[in-house]
Amino acid sequence: MSRPLSTHYDLVVIGAGIVGLASAREFLHRYPKLRVLVVEKEQQIASHQTGHNSGVIHTGIYYAPGSLKARTCVEGHRRMIEYCAEKGIRVEKYGKVIVAINENELPRLDNLYQRGIANGVQGLEMIGAERLKEIEPHAAGIKAIWSPTTSVVNYKEVAAAYAEDIRAAGGEIVVECKLTAITQREDQITLGLYGSFAPHWEGEITTHYLITCGGLHSDLLANMASPERDMQIIPFRGDYYLLKPEKRSLVNGMIYPVPDPRFPFLGVHFTRLISGEVKAGPNAVLAFAREGYGRKDVDFKELREILTSTSFIRLAMKYWRMGALEMYRDYVKSAYVKALQQYMPEITGDDLLPGPSGVRAQALAKNGKLVDDFLIRQGKNMIHVQNAPSPAATASLVIGEHIVNEAQKNFALEAVAV
Question: What CA–CA distance (Å, rounded) separates 297 from 287?
Fold first, then answer.
């Protein structure tokens, strides 16, 4: 379906990624009489961050206790496992080790373990080198955190199940339909839409309430309603390699590094996918377009806006050495392999095949600081999801509940759900 069936809805959700779908699903669960529309500009749902991640169902180890990420991830892990079991979606509980490769990393590893315990992550163990070799025989490390419940899934299948739930509850999902304008009046919101399907269609619909979950375009959507421009999305591309099929046995589950607080991204790691493939990476480089999945994907207008923004210039000045190193690794395979060899010394360049890439929508504040936690903002009769990186897929059911809880505080949902 590529065109709204009506000209008026009680609630419209912009963006059919996993968070937008989870939100629409939860609204219909609580208010079955709501007329709900989900609008997606791509030809299919889950086309960007949802469909380009590794499928890890995170347990909540990394996130600051009390943060929205921590609160939603721990519960989200449990809920995701239960939902997939209910829907018959395959989940593999591979487990994950977070390895310290030298003495300097041990204090950070211990802090991470204490953070996981504080967040209520189940089954965590601090293990030595001998136990590490039993779990991941080819991994380097002197000590590690073992998270046996970390699992993987195909989040496209989860998103498809959410979409089925929405349609079964009477909601609509339209694709190839782009939001072009938001006009707010006292009692309703008018949305300009453009259908890119043939023949092209252009029109307006009205709604009482609006939720935007635009991912890579979340700042632009929010600015349509309130052009404050106090937050900007910066797209970071991550390229992966895949282990050759005959080398997949080198990794049983997931091998992750200890995060370095000096740097904004996690670093390279190994992840066994639900397909059995093993991804190695990613790096983290500035994408030259919001949807720039390849090195040659450039949108000069978008790139100019990024490079000339004060917030990005401040970020680049702080992390220019790291950025230069990541760019070097992006083009020089031997440098990439060297980074991987810290965690698996026997890996060679011949063991790696070109793999997929993803683009992370990272929110950047005016002062140049990366927004670390989920960022969900409210306007009049609107909620804007402005930062939802990992572990948003894991936590999607709980984030959807959080969004509806916030809406219940400020939206007169009972008045329209009749």
Answer: 8
For 303-365, the DSSP string reads HHHHHT-HHHHHHHHHHHHHHHHHHHHHH-HHHHHHHHHTT-TT--GGGEEEEEEEEEEEEEE
Q: Report the distance separating Cα 210 and Cα 203, nearest Å.
A: 17
**Domains of the chain and CATH, by start:** 8-50+156-230+373-416 (3.50.50.60), 236-250+276-365 (no CATH)
Both tokens of 8, joined, read 């008026």
179: β partners: 193
- Strands 375-379, 231-243: pairing kind: unpaired
Reported as a pLDDT band with limits 50, 70 and 90, residue 415 is confident
Return the half-sphere exposure (C-beta side, CA atoms, 13 A cut-off) of residue 188: 11
**CA 99, CA 109: separation in Å to the nearest integer?**
8
CA distance 95 to 339: 22
The secondary structure of 121-139 as a DSSP string is -TT-EEEEHHHHHHH-TT-
Over residues 81-117, the pLDDT tens digits come to 999 999 999 999 999 999 999 999 999 999 999 999 9
**What span, in angstroms and rounded, lies between the C-alpha atoms of 152 and 142?**
26
* Close Cβ partners of 393 (under 8 Å, ≥ 6 residues apart): 18, 49, 50, 53, 155, 158
Residue 211 CA to chain centroid, in angstroms?
A: 17
| Of residues 388, 356, 393, 336, the one with CA closest to residue 275 | 356
> Angle between the 310-331 and 300-307 helix axes, to the nearest 10 degrees?
120
Residue 92 DSSP one-character state: B
Q: CA–CA distance from 130 to each of 125, 133, 175, 257 (Å)?
A: 13, 5, 52, 18
275: helix, strand or coil:
coil
